[in-house]
Amino acid sequence: MREPEATPRIQLGQALTFRWLSCLLVLAVLAAYLPLAQNDFIHFDDGDYVFANQVVVQGLTWEGIAYVWQHPMIDNYHPLTMMSHMLDVSLFGLNARYHHMVSLLWHLLVVWLWFYVLSKWTGQRDLAFVVALLFGVHPINVETVAWVSERKSLLSTFFLLITLLGYQRWMKKRHWKDFVLLHLSFAAGLLCKAMIVTLPFCLLLIDIWPLRGRSDWSFKRLAKLVTEKSILILMALGMSLLTLLIQTESASSGRAMLERLFHMLASFAIYIGKLIWPHPLVVMYPYESQGFLIALIGFLIFALGTTALLMRRKHILLIAWFWFLGVLIPVSGIVPIGYHLVADRYLYLAMIGFWAVLVWITCSPSGGKAPVLWHGGHQRRHITKTVSQRLKSHIEKRPISVRGTKVLRLGLFNGWMIRLWLLVSLLFAGKTFTQTQLWKDSNTIFPYTLQHSGPNPVIAINYVQTLLNQGHYQEAAPWLKKLAGWLPDSARVKSLQGWCDVNLGSTERGIDYLKESLLINPNVEYGLNYLADAYRLAGLHSLAAEQDGEILKRNPQDTNTRIKRAIALSESGDKELAESEFILAIQLEPGSSFACLNYAIWLNQQNRWHESLTYFELADKLNASRMSQLGLATAHLELEQYQSAQIILQDLLRDDPKDMQVLKLLQRIRSEQPD
Q1: What's residue 249's pLDDT?
Q2: Radius of gyration (C-alpha) of the chain in whole angstroms
Q3: Interior angle at CA 478, CA 472 and CA 482, nearest 5
Q4: Could you give the CA distance from residue 175 to residue 194 in angstroms, rounded to a whole number?
Q5: Long-range contacts made by residues 418-427, C-beta under 8 angstroms, separation at least 24?
Q6: 383: buried, middle or exposed (CB in 10 Å: 19+, 13-18, 0-12)?
Q7: For a surface tag, which of 155, 481, 520, 577 has the fewest beta carbons within 10 Å of its beta carbon?
């Protein structure tokens, strides 16, 4: 009697539907980033991009849209990124948790799209799931997801993936709609972040596999492939030129080419090391000249990895490896990039190639020789067996039908290597959960970075600035001492030291530091503001008004400084000029409750009660506050409008029954009001 044929097995990725795997992927990423809902902004770039950006804080307005399209911001031209932040402000205000949730949503979309692209291009859904999961929960991506300023990386990667899908559809159908889609999505990606300028060359890699799959690569054929991407290449060159024109000279521009080459080779080793062992992960890794040994390790990784994959002649492995290297080269240090050695965020786009290489080598039955899906316009279906199918025979069999073929449904992923990668993903997710908590705010991520990165002046300056903004001057003092040793001639450090000394009581020494910082760099950040406020605290109001005038020469629209100058002029005796500054500030920003309130208080001080009442009412209408309510009550009381004053004061007393200032005003009403 003839023995029945053994029923073939398949992986879980083939047995489970794409929908279920997508749900598992999304849930895993959400669990890893759960602490993100409690995180705040950090005082490093987030202010420039969101909460201190005068254009963004107005929300999504026509004026703001026109401005971000006409002007570069934060040394980059990325209007779509800025519009994304503006939309968040319109929807959620400056509530940081919702800005973080939007970033997480974009990350989920990027993770799912990687899963979709890899599944579609390789035909091996289980391996695509593992690669996308490793990407989605890897802790090195926490910087990109948990740092609101890095929204640009999320957006640009999303549009890059849309471009890849549009390119595949265009190669298959040659329809004009797909041609338009891929060019529009690439343009959108460039308008989010210029880092994806290498995409046209990545598409040449994709032409080799999986879209063409032919080996007759003559010069004529290559020229044709380049020509059909001419518009994309021109777009990339245009954005590269624009970025070079916008960006200021970086700190690394004076480094020798040999040192940059060492930096590039070393960065390959460092990046791969952090992908495998992601600890510690900090905001910024300070630049240090790399020794010969670490550069040699990077060269060996580059040379041996490339040679080994070339000898194997496996298309997917070659493409994934060259994707990893090609995306990293522009930010590897060969081109001057600033004060940092490497940055976690640069791996967000590159790391998918690294994981694809490892997963396909260890788990694919063909060692990485995946099918060519689109060749001559026809789709080739391909179902393979994993190595583990030949090693494991004790899993319970339950036949099901897939496209008319009897296969097995398995309770777990079939293959011990795939299970091992899932275990690695679980460990990565735990580290991501912890790393996300470190990004809670500036007071957690900055000390952690300084603890694990050695001398790091850039982060130390931002941490000191955070402490000074919070009024923690005693805590800032030891860090300023360290900064003075690291950067003895820094105008920014001297400015921070001066402001700290002023607030700790050493006013004269602090003013000397502030003056010295302005001599080194007249444009040092907050330098003029700190000096003007230092004069104010010292009672030198005429000097404070003079410094305020210097600030207004540079920014005439700064209504807050104009109000400060008006108060300083009044204190120094120039009442007429003070009032003109108050009025000009209100004219420049009619919706400023700060300007109206301060002018009303000044009018009260001049015993001009009727006029002060008008501006107190306007300030209270713009932004009701205890101060505006007290001002209204006081003005009504001085005008002997006792009933109106009493109503306002009784409302304030309900909020705080022990408010002594309110109780005193009520007592005055009882004593002055006629029977």
Answers
A1: 46
A2: 31
A3: 135
A4: 27
A5: 418/11, 418/126, 418/127, 418/130, 418/363, 418/386, 418/388, 421/130, 421/134, 421/359, 421/362, 421/363, 422/130, 422/133, 424/134, 425/28, 425/130, 425/133, 425/134, 425/137
A6: middle
A7: 481
- What average pLDDT does the segment 80-84 reach? 97
pLDDT at 156 over 50: yes
Q: Are 656 and 630 in contact (CB under 8 A)?
A: no
Question: Rounded to whole angstroms, how far apart are CA atoms 42 and 445?
Answer: 8
Q: How would you classify residue 142: left for phi > 0, otherwise alpha for psi between -120 and 50, otherwise beta?
A: alpha
Q: What confidence tier does 408 reach under pLDDT thresholds 50, 70, 90? A: very low
Q: Which two tokens stand for residue 120?
A: 């579609």
Whether 533 shows a pLDDT value over 70: the answer reads yes
| Phi, psi (deg, nearest 5) at residue 400 | -135, 175
Does the pLDDT value for residue 394 go beyond 70? Answer: no
The full DSSP string for 180-199 is: HHHHHHHHHHHTT-GGGGGH
Instruction: Return the SS3 of 405.
Output: strand
* Torsion sign, CA atoms 442, 445, 449, 451: positive
Q: Tokens 């040449």 — which residue?
A: 204
Residue entry with tokens 């849930």: 27
| pLDDT, averaged across the chain | 82
Mode of pairing for the β-strands spanning 399-402 and 405-408 = antiparallel
Q: Which among 209, 469, 188, 165 has a CA at the least distance from the CA of 318?
A: 209
Q: What DSSP letter does each residue of 566-626 carry, written as one string?
A: HHHHHHTT-HHHHHHHHHHHHHH-TT-HHHHHHHHHHHHHTT-HHHHHHHHHHHHHHS--H
3-state SS assignment for residue 71? coil
